[in-house]
Design a protein that fits this description.
Length: 128
């Protein structure tokens, strides 16, 4: 379960991203082949990149004091996901890939709690 931050478009994205990571982790655990894992991994990466771009525009507009660190964390999360190709996930074995993806999901949930939630007042102020 992830924290709701009170901004419906971002909350919806967060739920979708966590569900996509969970689906990918389950597929890896079930022994999906590298091709399927690659397709799902690329889909998650594309959605995550799009979400982060949306969020970063909001942070820039709000002149969020923590935006540079926040944006750097986005980059680190995207880099981690980019290294998890379908072949790499398959090499890790079902349980290893599952655990790795669950750790990534946990870190994304932490990013939401530690960075997104505190940024919301500034974002809401510019939307009025």
């Amino acid at each position: 379960m992830i924290a709701e931050i009170g901004l419906p478009p971002l909350d919806s994205d967060h739920r979708l991203l966590m569900a996509m990571l969970d689906d990918l982790a389950k597929a890896a655990l079930a022994g999906a082949d590298a091709g399927l894992l690659e397709d799902q991994s690329l889909e998650v990466a594309s959605s995550l990149e799009s979400h982060f771009a949306k969020e970063e525009r909001m942070l820039e507009e709000a002149l969020d004091a923590n935006r540079l660190g926040h944006i750097a964390l986005h980059g680190a999360l995207l880099d981690r996901l980019a290294r998890l190709s379908g072949a790499r996930l398959a090499e890790m074995g079902g349980q290893g890939a599952h655990d790795c993806l669950q750790a990534l999901a946990k870190d994304l949930a932490q990013e939401i709690l530690l960075f997104d939630l505190p940024a919301i007042p500034g974002i809401l102020a510019i939307q009025k």
